[in-house]
Amino acid sequence: MTDIENPGDAPTQLAAGGQNAVAHALGIIGDEWTLLILRHATAGVRRYSDYMDRLPISNSVLTNRLTRLAELGLLEKVAYQQRPPRFEYRLTKRGRDTWPILLAIWAWEAAWVPQHEEQLPVMRHGRCGQAFQPLLMCAACGKAVEPRDVTGGFGPSGTWERSVPAATTRRRSFAGSSASPGLFPQTMALIGNRWSSALLGAAFLGAHRFKDFEQRLGAPPTMVADRLRTFCDLGVLRPAPGVDRADWLSYHLTAKGRAFFPVVMCTLDWGHRWFKAPEGRALVYRHTECRRIFTPRLSCDQCREPLRGSDVTIEHAA
């Protein structure tokens, strides 16, 4: 049973004391099949058969994901034929609003993950005509933003317990597999598991020591150790001798880890806009330079103009 009552183009009103916007956003975005379906949906795919042609997916998994995305209000199931009955799945406003997340993930994977079997297509900005990388900006003042430029923490509905997504879907794992890693192999390692996404959030909120991660997440020590080891293997965290004792390691975000910040901010922003807890926001961030509530905006790094989903074209390699 879910506390989501009104999926569609209006924000969902969450139950008091339940999972907050962060948990709901990560529970949706942290699933690879969901990301791949949304990616094709934004390119105009609507029909079941077209998804089957484009994705290495089973009928049962595709049916499950399309049904879930319709229930969550990202897709709308619409009949296009009566005899026999056939349906297509159209993006709602909530679904279309995920494009900054997809764009940020695409850019991070292209810049930092070399293990794609095929080169990722180039993104081109329709307004200036240049190949580009999305640049994270403050919507209030228009300045470019790095992780160090944003401060904040939990808001009225924010606790670690309420922010951890439920394990509602089965994630694909490509570790040690010869299968294609898809478009988002390392993104899934960071947000495709409820404890991974929580640990990443703790790192961006300033956790460094093992006991800090353990206390904030409320996860078993073996789970924390496994996730820290995975993040270090991926080059997202860097271990260093502790200040108090050299054998007590301290974990710090690397340049690769900090570069994932736009994905995190765009995901949280989407979650807060579409999932409303009665107590208020789960997380509150401010841009230290302008001192306003930080709302992320992606701009073209070539012309600095704000990006819109309709401005971005994808060019596949010849």
UniProtKB/TrEMBL annotation:
PROSITE patterns: HTH_HXLR. Pfam families: HxlR. InterPro entries: HTH_HxlR, WH-like_DNA-bd_sf, WH_DNA-bd_sf. SUPFAM superfamilies: Winged helix' DNA-binding domain. Residues 10-117, 180-279 form the HTH hxlR-type domain. It comes from the Bacteria. The keyword Transcription regulation applies. Coiled coil: none annotated. Keywords: DNA-binding, Transcription, Transcription regulation. This is Helix-turn-helix domain-containing protein.
